[in-house]
Amino acid sequence: MTKLFLSLHVLAAIVAVGPVTVAASMFPAMLRRALGDSGDGDAWTTLRTLHRICRVYAGVGIAVPVLGLATASSLGVLGEVWLITSILLTGAAAGVLALLILPAQDRALAAPAGSASPLPAPTPWTPGRLAMVTGIFNLLWATVTVLMIIRPGSTTGV
Amino acid sequence: MHHRPPSHLRIASHVELISLIVMLANVFTVHIESISSLMGPAHGCAYLFVVIATARLRQAPTTVKMLALIPGVGGLLALRQLDRFGPARDNTEEVILS
User: Fold this and answer.
1) Residue B2: inside a domain, yes or no?
2) Are A15 and A60 in contact (CB under 8 A)?
3) Residue A66 and residue B45 in contact, taking contact as beta carbons nearer than 8 Å
4) Which of A136, A146, B3, B67 is the 20 to 30 A CA-CA neighbour of A118?
5) Considering its fold, how many domains does chain A have in total?
């Protein structure tokens, strides 16, 4: 059962986190293009698609920590330092994605539609700031992946 | 904009309760280790998801956010409150905005 959990965990990580990192990284550049040329309807359509990819695959991505914890608990390695570090970093990455990146993308998409209203909505982030936060997210994920492979201090040969 | 509670909250609330029931049923009957391994994290993630998602809902009053903290059934209780009071509250918010 451990092998099944581990396979599904890796599969979910590849299938779910991959698209999110790519789509989230493309979003700021596309946003810059859309803001620069306001008549560019294609750019806004692409932005909406990218945001949808981020949102949907972030939801699918919940399977990654669930299956990861299931694997760890059936291997009995939940107390190991490399794993606890990875869990904390994953938590940070999930927080950055769900609480910073996705709402910021939402605001960026809502801004052109709501520009007619007299009361200003919360100001959307600049593409640069969004790019920085997305970079932090990618860096956190890369760190977790490296930790998962190197597993410093691990004694299991799995 | 949100006249009803978002669907992701609805799904997570049900996962929260169902995973708890499966987990308890498993412990008191056959106790298969791998079911515990899978359902434990699933329940924990669903619980955290429900608490954080409710806390971030703009139309949710503090009572609902506190309700969501109850283990197991908190998400469903919060949903019930949102279904009952959500639309009216949301309308007043829109009036204020416009």
Assistant:
1) no
2) yes
3) yes
4) B3
5) 1
Question: How does residue A39 score in pLDDT terms, banded at 50, 70 and 90?
Answer: low
Q: Dump pLDDT digits (tens) for A44-59.
A: 899 999 999 999 999 9
List CB contacts (< 8 A) between A117 and chain B. Answer: 97-98
CA gap B3, B54 in Å, rounded? 15
Residue A157 lies in a domain: no
- Residue A49 structural domain: 2-150
Angstrom distances, CA of residue A147 to CA of A22, A76, A78, A97, A150:
21, 17, 14, 20, 5
Residue A92 domain-assigned (yes or no): yes
Nearest CB partner across the interface for B37, out of A65, A70, A99: A70
CA distance A2 to chain B (A): 8
Long-range contact list for A33-38, CB < 8 A, 24+ apart? A35/A127, A38/A112
Residue B1 lies in a domain: no
Torsion of CA B39, A157, A151, A83, to 10 degrees: 20
The domain of B23 spans 7-97
In a domain, A156, yes or no: no
Q: Give how many domains chain B has, as a whole number.
A: 1
Q: Give ipTM to 2 decimals.
A: 0.75
Give this prediction's pTM: 0.81
Q: Tally Cβ neighbours within 10 Å of residue A84.
A: 12
Count CB-CB contacts under 10 A for residue A62: 22
Shortest Cα distance from A74 to chain B (angstroms)? 6
d(C-alpha B98, C-alpha B90), whole Å = 12
Pick A73's closest partner by Cβ from B37, B97, B98: B37
